[in-house]
Design brief:
Dihydrodipicolinate Reductase, domain 2, 2 domains, 11 strands, alpha/beta, 331 residues, globular
Length: 331
């Protein structure tokens, strides 16, 4: 979301050194937070001036690696310290809203990890805070910046595919259920399952490719009853299929038994319509991949095979046009 409103009375303090550039802080030092740090470090005109995270040893290591002046164990202290123009929120989903709202109320721009929040109420509170403060609130939907998505967007915008009227996107996380037993798989803390995790990416770039149509109706169905069970669940959460040609076999509906599959059908204002299917794991006894099949309308493939492997052969093409390759996060 990009607001054009003038800054409110709680705007950030003027910069002490204009040559320092945009002063950013990162809240969260896990994998996502480290990706934000790496991206900021590679940008001209950006200075990482603060970092907040609970793990003392890791926090110190990152401070040294990125030469960060100030580090904090508590994000409240980081915001109260001041001197920030923008922050990244790379925390568990249940903390997105409180951190983002507190930063926006202090006149700080916010880039939050996805999903925006656990529910619509929390998400709306973040949007309202951004509008009131006249600050930018953005969500890290980096997959719309992938090379294949950008290339397909150019084709669509140029009229090369006519008027898109139907989209279907699917995603199967082949490495299993992520961090089983942590906050990530607790709906009260994460806000949902695979639809809230990876499905939001498919939904975002599908809407992006369709020209951001106004959504007027949504229906959904969820399921969680298949897949590996009991003691096998922990081991299965990190299992990766072997690097063999069978890894790219089409996922067969009669054998997969999707675990925690979540499907979303949406009806936009007039055509087009779309369908999203996401899953963290599968019950198949064979290594599987997301199916690469043709459908009426457009198939938005989330794993980067668009333009690289367009057939149902067991072994995909090993080369892909440079413009179709995945773009780095936050590029």
């Amino acid at each position: 979301m990009n607001n054009q409103q003038s800054p409110g009375p709680q705007a950030a303090a003027p910069r002490e050194n204009a040559t320092q550039g945009l002063r950013v802080g990162v809240v969260g030092i896990g994998w996502a937070g480290q990706q934000h740090l790496k991206a900021y470090a590679g940008l001209d005109g950006v200075a990482i001036v603060a970092l907040a995270g609970m793990e003392q040893e890791l926090r110190g290591s990152l401070q040294e690696e990125y030469s960060i002046p100030k580090v904090f164990a508590d994000w409240h202290e980081m915001l109260d310290h001041g001197g920030l123009d923008a922050i990244s929120v790379a925390l568990p989903t249940f903390l997105h809203a409180p951190v983002a709202v507190a930063a926006l109320e202090r006149g700080i721009h916010v880039l939050s990890e996805k999903p925006i929040a656990r529910n619509a109420v929390e998400g709306q509170a973040m949007v309202d805070a951004a509008r009131k403060a006249g600050r930018v609130l953005d969500i890290a939907f980096n997959h719309r910046r992938r090379g294949d998505i950008q290339a397909l967007k150019q084709v669509i915008d140029a009229g090369g595919l006519g008027r898109p009227y139907y989209a279907k996107a699917s995603w199967l996380r082949r490495s299993g259920i992520p961090t089983l037993g942590s906050w990530f798989t607790n709906p009260e803390l994460s806000g949902g399952g695979p639809l809230a995790d990876i499905g939001v990416h498919a939904l975002d770039y599908a809407l992006h490719l369709l020209g951001e149509p106004k959504v007027v109706a949504v229906s959904a169905a969820t399921h969680s009853g298949s897949g590996r069970r009991a003691g096998a669940a922990e081991a299965g959460s990190q299992r990766r299929p072997p690097a063999t040609p069978s890894r790219w076999r089409t996922l067969r509906r009669r054998s997969c038994g999707l675990k925690a599959a979540q499907r979303l059908w949406s009806k936009q204002a007039g055509p087009p319509t779309g369908r999203r299917t996401t899953s963290w794991s599968s019950r198949s006894t064979e290594p599987t991949a997301v199916p690469n099949s043709r459908h009426m309308g457009l198939l938005f493939h989330p794993l980067g095979s668009f333009g690289c492997s367009r057939t149902r052969t067991a072994k995909p093409r090993t080369t892909c046009p440079q413009s179709y390759r995945a773009a780095p996060m936050m590029q």
